[in-house]
Amino acid sequence: MGKDGDLTIDFAKSRIELEVFINLLQESVIVCDRSLCIKLMNHNACRIFHVNSQETLGKSITDLMQNTGIIAELERMWENIPDKSTINLPVVLDEIKLSIDNDRDRVLVVSAAPVLIDQEPHIFLILHDLTALKNAFLRIDTGKKQYELLAEHSPLGIISCNNEGDIEYMNQRMYEIFEIASDFPADEMNLYKNDVIKIQDLEEKIHACVTSSNECTLIRPFHTSSGKDLEFRILIKPLLLNGEITGTLLLVEDYTIRYQLEEEQKVKEERLYMMLRGIPHPAWLVSRSFLIIAQNVTAEKMFNKKIGDFCWDESVDLEKSFLYRHGKELRTESINDEIEQDGMVWDTWWIPLGEDIYLYYATNITKYKMIETELFNLSTTDALTGIYNRRFFEKKLEEEIERVYRGSHPFSLIMIDLDHFKKVNDTYGHSTGDKVLKEFTTEILRNRIRKIDMVARWGGEEFMLLLPETPIQKAVLLAEELKSTLSSLCFRDVGTITASFGVAGFQIGDTKENILDKVDKTLYQAKDEGRNCVRACVEEC
To answer: What angle do CA 518, 522, 525 make, to 5 degrees?
Structure first.
């Protein structure tokens, strides 16, 4: 300690101790003399300026802090420090920003303190690096502004209030909903006491949420000062600070239109369910993903399905499923199908009622299909023999001609006439004659022809065979076989019967009338030539 309390440091003796000391400091320290030459620089200062301490010794501090205003401050400081001055208190010179080696700007607060070293005044520069702190405050400020911007432009109303209901913040959307002038101070309103903004049962609900420390949602009606009736959906969220609830945040949605739509939807759904219950047949409401949404009592009893089940039994092949046999997605248009299940026939309809809902119902049409089949059989078959009649045979003959012209192989016809059958009817009676015709049809014709062949009663004791994909040579062989079989058969009460056979093969250019005329001519040729024989139409016939 020097005279009058001066603090004098022997720089030469104390350099090492001083360097050790300043390197222990968390702050950045630079020691410079009157000419602003750097005498010492600790590690933290070197890190800030990206330099080596040995390289900077003796260099001017202006090389490190150009254009910062600090140099001028230091020069003015020297003017107030006489030689061998006593130490004064440190002074804050300035807050500066430095860009070093393309690094981010650093924010430094520079403090300076004079000190005597070897009886010469020096300056201790202490640099407080506030970069991280400044950035943190900047992020907080930016976040706050962004939150305020989002809050003000939010489609939801936002209210923040303390535990007594005093409003601390309310966004513009909430002003619009409450129909309050935007310049009216929010902090002068109380959510529980102000009649203009008071919401039914809200205070009790908030207290319940605060007590349980849980957020909750509620829907409440609200009557505005202009006479509008609104529906609010409100999310209540307690606000925590240091583990204590200090208030409540409310997110308020004007739910009026959606609420009305939901109510209307409920009415529509109820009507839909009433319609479903009124259908006398099994009926379901089904989603696009094939889940049952609703079903009537008939459907539930008949098929033992529950709400939420799939439309089909997963243990059964989808193609065999009653409710939906198509392995594909539902379409936007209606789908109508006839489905046979367990000996019954169902007429089914899938009708889209919206984007994701279908009405499906099934009508048991088994008895109608039986009637339809019976009528079809009556219109296409011969009542006595049970084989096809002449009208249906002609229709099938036309179709077979079309098949040939589309690329199929030609076919052949065999026309059969039982010889002297009028004598059988006259001698033994028509009842016996009918029995012969039935037995001939069953024992001779049906047992010998293929599944693709067709036999029909042409009239009286005449019969016709249509043989697809059969050339005339094979048709002749079949006719000969039928003739031989018939000749060897003994009919009860009648004995042996013979028949005449005419055979014709279809040729390109033939029509229905043409081919029928050819086979008819060959039959009469067989009858003219003594009966009980086969005659075929050659190309020139």
So the answer is: 140
